[in-house]
Amino acid sequence: MRVQLYYAPYPSLTLRGEEQPISTVRVLNPKSALVTLAAGARQYLDRWGVEADLRIIDAQVDGGETYYKSFAYGPRTIDCGRVGGDFAAYEDTIREADICGISNNFTNSAGIVTAFAQELRRYNPGCVFVAGGMDATARPDHYLENGFDIVVQLEGEY
Questions:
Q1: pLDDT tens-digit profile of 101-113?
Q2: For the residues of the chain, what is the DSSP string, one character each?
């Protein structure tokens, strides 16, 4: 079984005409969620005799920033970008996966995460897509209606 765990590209929200994002964009900070998940999953899979190749892919650190939409915010406009690799950059990678897990803890990332899953599914329609993280825990129906087959709520290593 080939399992890929992704950090999807990250949102960057900027008031039109400003340079500094109003959202925190810290894609180079150490991330432990998927490493912890992979370590726990590996322990259980080994115990159950399941062979799995687990791979973590951080799409937040690939590429630059891509504009994807704007919306009115009071009298101003917020321009939304996603920081990280272009979705198409993962076409060859996702074709190798049996299971694709995407972690999302923040509601402001939900649109990017679901769009990422939908795009990856185009490249590998037979792959099982799993959402995890706190936003997926709080709003599982959103993820199930937008590209995911399964939502893992709370801790997911088991």
A1: 998 888 889 999 9
A2: -EEEEEE--EEEEEETT-SS-SS---TTS---HHHHHHHHHHHHHHHHT---EEEEEETTSSS-EEEEEEEEETTEEEEEEEES--GGGGHHHHTT-SEEEEE---GGGHHHHHHHHHHHHHH-TTSEEEEESHHHHH-HHHHHTTT-SEE--S----
